[in-house]
């Protein structure tokens, strides 16, 4: 069996978001489950969206320009800790380093793995590592290696090495009174999406107040518990805790803002626990016996202007909301009350425009592959939507039931005013149903399964972030 045939067989169960080219065409044609995107950035972002639901997402691009176009989504996956497994082509081995057509060494924020030999066992091993490490991998394979016969097919079975009793002791031996449990996305480990949806039931039984990072929002019902802390969430509770137990957060500047960082770090206990499965997670949380007297007062943001009032209505129309980057992200983040994990997906550490649409598409594909009928709603600005607008064709090609709301304020956040094209004509040009919404009572147009809505909004100032 040739290397490209072995890879295609191994990836059989995954969608591969792909864009063809000379150096990768052997593998491209061999894949049965590929989705043809319209720009490699779309491929990387769709893989990220797919991976946010299905643990890992895969994409395929050609050499040179294929890889350089992929650099933004890979950087996003790197900053947001997402498992994106990117496969790229390369010129024939003998031309490497010789300034051959499309040959370029590109510096990219991903683990770069060059395949000199057709070792399928090692390929599978990197796939598993990518899944467990929650970082992007860029696999680079010269065309001639793709066509060689497979050398080896076996690989090690990796898993997280947890010392559960030691970590439980660390928690249960804490003697402070006002303890806060902080949960980050590391808690998802290698759980399936369906397992992840069970986490709130498990955490509900714990006698500790629970705070979360942005990507872990919804692991506890935000209506009744603390929920999001940090720059866009509650700060006072972080300050009033005597001890913060961190499970699964990288403690980014979004969670521990710069001005309070040292203070917060000095009272944080880091717990090393990344569950391999739901059984392990259940056992771990069931055995936390520590209690806390920490009190807090929950505050909710209420919409004031036209922009936030419309967002407040729009968010009712999606089970999973995917945002782009801009004012709409902040309003959505403040107004959405997450009651289940992964119900709000954003570029939380990279803040990347052009994220929303392709990531929403990737999320929808992952839900379809898992036979889950949840509605995906993408909320974007009138700036960000134009950054990957070509991917509307993927929605059209697959007749994907996905909703898109473009918040049209004719501005790029507070940076500058912009002129906009006729978005309705553009969407219709891609064969999609499109609607223009002017008044708030027309927002119910979003109750359709597939719709592209342009929502006219008056600009509105953002509330100040917590620092
Ligand atoms: C790729 C990228 N380029 C530039 C920025 C800087 N930036 C952040 S928000 C923003 C404007 C977003 O405008 P729009 O998409 O219209 O959304 P709105 O703020 O109006 O909701 C810009 C330019 C960014 N975050 N990402």
What characteristics describe this protein?
alpha/beta; 467 residues; six-stranded parallel sheet; 3 domains; Rossmann fold; binds thiamine diphosphate; globular; single chain; 17 helices
How would you sum up the global shape? globular
User: Looking at this structure, what is the CATH superfamily of the largest domain?
Assistant: Thiamin diphosphate (ThDP)-binding fold, Pyr/PP domains
Ligands and ions found:
thiamine diphosphate
SS class: alpha/beta
Quick one: how many beta strands? 19
Biggest sheet: strands, sense, closure? 6 strands, parallel
CATH class category of the largest domain: Alpha Beta
Strand order of the largest sheet: 2-1-3-4-6-5
The CATH architecture designation of the largest domain is 3-Layer(aba) Sandwich
How many structural domains? 3
Average pLDDT taken over every residue: 96
Q: What fold name stands as the CATH topology of the largest domain?
A: Rossmann fold
Which value, in Å, is the CA radius of gyration?
A: 23 Å
What is the count of helical runs?
17
Q: pLDDT under 50 segments (min length 5)?
A: none
The span between the termini is 57 Å
The percentage helix is 25-40%
Percent strand equals 15-25%
Describe the model.
The chain folds into three domains: 3-146, 3-Layer(aba) Sandwich (Rossmann fold), CATH 3.40.50; 164-286, Rossmann fold (3-Layer(aba) Sandwich), CATH 3.40.50.1220; 306-456, Rossmann fold, CATH 3.40.50. The mean pLDDT is 96. It has helices at residues 3-10, 25-30, 40-54, 65-80, 120-133, 143-147, 164-172, 193-196, 199-203, 236-240, 261-266, 278-286, 306-314, 327-335, 356-369, 392-398, 423-429; strands at 16-18, 34-36, 57-61, 84-90, 111-114, 137-142, 179-183, 210-212, 227-228, 243-247, 268-271, 320-323, 344-345, 376-381, 403-408, 411-412, 416-417, 434-437, 451-456. β3, α4 and β4 (84-90) form a beta-alpha-beta unit. With 467 residues, the chain is α/β, with parallel strands linked by helices. The structure holds thiamine diphosphate.
